[in-house]
Design a protein that fits this description.
Blueprint lengths: L2 H14 L5 H21 L7 H15 L17
Length: 81
């Protein structure tokens, strides 16, 4: 169900940052998606659905996507990126 959305966001990120492999771009999309939803849940906010999450992730990709290949992780969870 979410696969087409993740594919679309991955394609968007690859257009913004051709330095990322398809696998890296997909990982970024999944991590950003999960991070937004987890943060929203921890803050006690009502779940607004995948459409809201997609909108936020798109904005993040537009803002940060061209620079993600330069990311240097400080958290071992993100070492593969």
């Amino acid at each position: 169900m979410m696969e087409p959305v993740f594919e679309r966001l991955t394609d968007q990120l690859r257009l913004l940052n051709p330095e990322l492999s398809a696998e890296q771009a997909r990982s970024w999309v999944e991590h950003l998606w999960e991070d937004f939803e987890a943060t929203r849940a921890r803050s006690g906010r009502e779940y607004k659905g995948p459409e809201v999450t997609e909108t936020i992730v798109k904005k993040w990709l537009e803002q940060y996507g061209p620079h993600l290949h330069r990311y240097e992780p400080t958290n071992s969870r993100f070492n593969h990126l």
